[in-house]
Every structure is written in structure tokens, then in C-alpha cells.
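Section 5.1 Outputs to date
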Amino acid sequence: MTALRDAGMKSKAWPFEEARALLKRYEKKAPEKGYVLFETGYGPSGLPHIGTFGEVARTTMIRRAFEAISDIPTRLICFSDDVDGMRKVPENVPNQDMLRQHMQKPLTSVPDPYGQFDSFGAHNNAMLRRFLDTFGFEYEFISATEFYKSGRFDDTLRLATQRYDAIMNIMLASLREERQQTYSCFLPIHPETGRVLYVPMKHVDAANHTITFDDEDGREWTLPVTGGHVKLQWKPDFGARWAALGVDFEMYGKDHSTNTPIYDGICEVLGGKRPNHMSYELFLDDQGQKISKSKGNGLTIDEWLTYAATESLSYFMYQKPKTAKRMHFDVIPRAVDEYHQQLRAYPDQDIDAQVNNPVWHIHHGAPPASKMVVTFGMLLNLASVAGAKDAAGLWGFIKRYAPDASPETNPDLDAAAGHAVRYFTDKIAPTRVFRLPNEMERAAMEDLRARLAAWDGPRDDESLQTMVFAVGKDHGFDPLRDWFKALYEVLLGASDGPRFGGFVALYGISETLALMDRALAGELVG
């Protein structure tokens, strides 16, 4: 057993824990299909969002962990449920009147409101693939439309007619009485209107694999369940897809977890082996409310990437997936700095520690070196006092602090500087509130100013921080964090920030003295 495999078998990192559980699935015999299949699902009624990213990123982390401890080949399928009927017109797309004429039609039968693709479903599928490709995910794409129409799903659908009663028994037990009266696991696609129909079955023919039903006008129809004439309701479709493809692993949000027995039961009724699955907690907004696409109360991928690199988002997704987390703009700076902190630690760790480091999972075991010689939090504070309009406006300060750094040799720092300027301009500047110091704080700040003006010691972060710390202690601040809080509120208009000594080292002593003079004179207030 290699050192990596041995470390992975012991690792407490959640991707390895899930990978080991998956490996047990085949401890007696390798899969007959020759590989372990991971799947993620996507509903193309709208554009891909941050949850889509999280699901594919986390599944990929488990896949890579599995590959580290097993020689069994793997595949990852991203499945688009584009036969789903369009139940409402998204508010953020053009040609809404045109779309309303196609309500309840499969998304791949609805014209593309952008006029670029054969259908709205095809448009959103293309956006999904571009989205996944941008982030470098390795996957295979399957369209439900192709899956149903090509015959790849036919054997499972025929079996569903033969085991219709067993499927219905599973489903009816989960439904209210009034819903039980009209429910069917089969949704016919009307031969004339092309709409997905939610109607009860009059007859399911297990020998001929057909269904008979009345449409909304009372006309009777008989259709084969094969060839794309019929789709399955989404819960039966979930389990049937697992059976048809031989899915070994799929994760989904906690809001799906109560359906797990349904998905598993239908998979087994249709001759499949229920896959391993993992449910993750949902994200919350800044008020602790569940993020909702319709409410627009959460972050989008584009919003995150406006202020930070993709890797910081992957780091955020890695952290405690089974714990509900606030996902608002204010989590970005910490995610960036913690990600780079882990990158810096990685080279000095042994293999056991490395496989527990998030960056191993983010970068598939080959993380790059961090060139972030200045923290993102420090760049934000520098942006607040430097008046910079872009990254170039911060580099004069950065090069004085780290003479060997440059945009060319430190591209991650250069990108972070640009992100910090945008973040400060959009998210911090509008909320800054400066105040005057109280009598105790003023005395301490005047003392700090005098000591800084006379400073002839080393100009590194630690030496300056020690001096700032001593001033607060000499003036009786207890706890000392009140001293640093006062400095940030008076000088930067914020209640917290990185180490103040590091800020002085980066911004410069003379510049800090000028800032203190303005603050003590009341020029920053109002």
C-alpha cells in the first residue's frame, strides 16, 4: 500500500470518509460495469448557481479521494433533467410572453428566449457545460431528453410498468390523501400539445409496456412508456436513473434527505443497488434564513468571483458540508486568507497531515505554492486608506513591504489586490462609520503616535505589533481587543481588521502618522 493510500485510509477528512464507505461497497467484488459511477443532477429551469458548483466540487473531492485509495476506475456524470415541464417563466430572461405560450412543455421543447440554441433547455445545458468547464471539472454530460428518446432508459421504463404497483405503493405512502387520488409515477407527454401531463392512469399494461389515460379534455390516449413518450415524476425518476445507470454515489441537499427512502426503494424495485449518498446542509443568508433563488437572498457564483478567486469558493465549500453556514459577502475575506494559510502550511506537512488539508482536496493532491505575501484582510485595509482605484494603486505599498514581489511573480496577490479594491469600494466603503476617540483612547493614540514618530526599531509586522500592544497595555485597556477595536473604528471606520502592526508595516509609518493626525483632528468623521 502506497503512503498516499495508507494516509487516505486513516484520514478524518470527510471526502476520505465518504470514499472509504464507497470502497466497502466493492470490498468483495469489483463493479461489473468496470467503474464506480458518481452522479450530480441539475434542473435546467434556470442558470447554474452556486449550489450547482458546490455539488459538483464536493462530489469531485470525494471522487479524487476514492481514486487515492482504490484502483477501480471512476466516472462522474452530470445529469440534466431537461424533460421537466416548464412550470413558471423565469423572471430574468427575455421574451417572457413567448415563453408563456409553452408552459408545461419539456424544457427542450420550449424555444430559446435568447434565440441562440434549439431550445431553452439546450441553452441552459450549454450554460451548465460552460460553467463546469470554466472551473475545470472532469465530467460527462447526459441530457434527460437524449436519455429518454435514445432508448437508454427503455429497459428500466418497461420494468417500471411491470412493477408499477410496487412503485406506487412507495409513492402513495408519502402523499396526502387528496394527492393519492390523482398521482401517477408516469407523466405522459401529450402527442398533440407536447405538454407534460399530470393525470391519473386508467391502465398500465405490463405486457405491452403502455399507459392509458384521459387528457385534460377527457380524450383517452394510450402511449408506450418507451422512446420519450412518457417521463417519470421527479422522485421516481431519481431512483430509476440510479438503477438504469448503476449510480454508486450521489449527494444532495438536506431538503432532499427525507426522500432518501423513496429514492432508494424505487431504485431497488427497478433492479438497482441503492447508491451511497450524502446530504449536505443548506446555506443561510446574513439573517440566518435559507438561501432561495427566487428571493435572491444569497451569493451568486459571479458575485463571489467578483471579489475572490475560485479556489476560495472551493475552500468554503470544503468546510463542514454537514453544518449550515452563512453565505454572505462578509465570508469572502476570511475564506481567501484561510485558503492561503493552508497553502503555506502544506509543503511542511507530512502525508498524513496533507490529506487532511483542504488544499489537497481542492487541487486534487497537487496544490500550488501561495504567493500571497500580504493577507486579503490587510489589502482591504490598505484599499481603505490608499484611495486606490485598481490593483496598480496598491502595488507601491506592497513592493515597499515585500520588495521581491511583483504582479508577474505573484499573480495570486495581484488578482487579490484587484479583488480587494472592488470589495472595499462595493461592500465596505458604503458602510464605514468613523468616530472620535474617547478621552482614554485619545491619550493612548497620542502616545502611539509619539512612539511611532520616534520609532527606530525594525519595521516588520511583529516588532510594530508588539509596540502597539504595549501602548494598549500601558493605558489600561482590558481586554486589549478594545484597544485594537478603537484603532480600527477611529482610523478605518470599521470594528475589526488584521493585526495593526502589519497594517503599519504595509501602509508605512509616515502614512500612518498622517492618518492618525487626520483622525485625531476629527477630519475623518462626517
